[in-house]
Specification:
Length: 230
């Protein structure tokens, strides 16, 4: 019996750990029941080669999200949703930026004020790199991508100009911790990529010259971003 409980507990712990890195899509929001039923009907009647794409879309739209690993008191949440954010549905994105800010602030303080006095300071990289990149990188970059198109904070709220600063903070400040120079993401993604619409050579990140079914082309595309090799 004890062994069984250990196995079950270990399995549950591993599932929770997996969901820290990947959204848990095992359950759907009951409030979206009608939309989910329509999507399921579409899934049942779709062509076989469309099935996986529809399943992924359903998971993305209706699955339980795990981007934000922190929560705020209910009163704060309601105030932010109703008085500060442009759209209350963007609340999870705001939490994502908040948790990233808390982490990089903490890690920076450790590196600047604590570890320089220790000969073992380089060992902090064993913590900083996995948390920053494995845990938060995808969350932050996807949130920044969305916020670059649709600012989260309303400048008509009581926060005024502070809202404008908060809308730009991810691209100006936080992006540097994930290897993107201040302001570069907006110029690359909004000004260049969407204006050129992936057309080569005007969009320097265009996928047009590449065969998406060729693994070597994918390697070259990745190296292009890492070392600017054309």
């Amino acid at each position: 019996r004890a062994s069984f409980l250990v196995v079950v507990s270990t399995g549950m712990a591993l599932t929770r750990l997996k969901n820290v890195f990947e959204p848990d899509v095992s359950s759907y929001d009951p409030a979206l029941a009608d939309e989910i039923d329509s999507a399921r009907a579409l899934l049942e009647n779709c062509k076989p080669h469309h099935r996986e794409a529809i399943q992924l879309a359903m998971h993305d739209m209706y699955g339980k999200r795990m981007e934000a690993l922190i929560t705020l008191p209910k009163a704060w949440e309601e105030h932010l949703k109703n008085n500060v954010l442009k759209d209350k549905r963007d609340y999870p994105l705001m939490l994502t930026f908040l948790q990233c800010t808390i982490w990089v602030t903490f890690s920076s303080c450790v590196q600047l004020f604590v570890l320089p006095k220790s000969g073992w300071s380089y060992l902090w990289a064993l913590v900083h790199i996995p948390v920053t990149w494995a845990l938060f990188a995808e969350r932050f970059i996807l949130a920044m991508h969305y916020a670059a198109h649709r600012p989260l904070f309303s400048e008509r709220s009581a926060w005024g100009r502070t809202a404008w600063v908060l809308n730009n903070a991810p691209q100006w400040v936080l992006s540097n911790f994930w290897g993107m120079p201040s302001g570069a993401y907006y110029l690359h993604h909004i000004v260049m990529h969407h204006q050129a619409n992936n057309c080569f050579p005007y969009d320097i990140s265009s996928t047009m010259p590449y065969d998406r079914g060729n693994f070597l082309h994918w390697i070259h595309y990745m190296i292009n971003f890492l070392h600017w090799i054309h």
